[in-house]
Amino acid sequence: MDTRIQSILEAATLLFLRQGYAGTQISHIAGAIGVSVGTIYHDFAGKKEIMHFVLKCTIDPDFINKDFERPITDNLFSDVENEIASLFERSQNDFAKHLEDDAPGYRFEDLISDAFDILARYAVGCLFIEKNQFEFPFLAEHYKTYRRKFLDTMSRYLTIFVNNGTVRTLDHLKLTTTLIIEILTWWAMDRRYTSFETSDIPLELAKKICMDNILSAYKR
């Protein structure tokens, strides 16, 4: 792995998430890792290429280990937005697979664990779209659809668990589902990248805290 490319990736990720794509300049990325602007342009043709590199590494973590010709150009990312849209669909279908037969053997704790893992795995891509939706309308539209389906899937799972007696009765199912998702989202996504106060809480501990509290609140 090229350590400078890794440093550019990490710095650009935080800057794009915290101050937006439009508000981030190449000089900001260079300053964050202590190199010249020219050094950044040696590795990447421009800001758009860095942004696409960030998104590509989100959906393919091993991508950074490839050997790249410098500067990296957008020829490598000609279909990245369609790849992300397809990933949303595959992820949603996989998440909903236990609904086909009313989730036999699938537990409430399995649901919360799986939901946390999905949100953590794609945190950078999801947060990037949320923070930059007006600059990237194609991704934003697919992401909004994905979020609606994710909420619907969680609601359907909770309905099954309420009906089989493993989750307590919920007076406001959709609002409760939204609350659970928002808790998971903050601990799996925002806490790591965009919260006002940075935190060094390990991801495993963040997941444990979520599961302990959500299960205690809703499991019968």
From TrEMBL:
Residues 25-44 bind DNA. PROSITE patterns: HTH_TETR_2. The keyword Hydrolase does not apply. Keywords: DNA-binding, Transcription, Transcription regulation. Residues 2-62 form the HTH tetR-type domain. It comes from the Bacteria. Gene3D superfamilies: Tetracycline Repressor, domain 2. It holds the Pfam family TetR_N. This is Helix-turn-helix domain-containing protein.
